[in-house]
Amino acid sequence: xxxxxxxxxxxxxxxxxxxxxxxxxxxxxxxxxxxxxxxxxxxxxxxxxxxxxxxxxxxxxxxxxxxxxxxxxxxxxxxxxxxxxxxxxxxxxxxxxxxxxxxxxxxxxxxxxxxxxxxxxxxxxxxxxxxxxxxxxxxxxxxxxxxxxxxxxxxxxxxxxxxxxxxxxxxxxxxxxxxxxxxxxxxxxxxxxxxxxxxxxxxxxxxxxxxxxxxxxxxxxxxxxxxxxxxxxxxxxxxxxxxxxxxxx
Length: 249
Known about the structure:
By secondary structure, this protein is mainly alpha-helical. Helices cover 59% and strands 7% of the residues.
């Protein structure tokens, strides 16, 4: 089967984000955000988290399918480890990771006092280092983070790290829910239930392991774990599922 152009484009951008991870790590780091908070600083990673929340009403979790370095690594693993990532109960684990981390972040600013906004570009914030040292440390750290997500994907199945550890997805999920509550127009999936032949290809293609076929047959395509990669759209032989932009809720 010929690979759809959209999927080729997605994987091209996805792969580039993976290669750039040593340089972008600082902007995605949960540790540096807390470290900065306890010194009275808003780090670049906090600004990224806020941006993800604010764009989620319009773009959903598209970041996860187009730009997340750990996401690319896990989808690469899924070429051999095709098992679905457990039951929905497992998918709630990330909230037990995110909540105390967010509490630690907020507590830091409360006790240290908000002093400055410093979006650092070095992996070893707050220390200043030369370019080669920064890139070297960034590469080592990025490799370790990637390894953790790969191990989780191997243990739990498709995108296991996204379901259990990811500190970014709660911001995106909450942002998406806020957008739906406010009926903000956004990128979304739609379906025509009458044309579904229950072939199961959409569910098999979903990198997040969500029940796409059931959703398509019910005509309810919103799911908190959907990353809007559109692989289900490109896989459906009857064009039952489509990607559109419009009012939500």
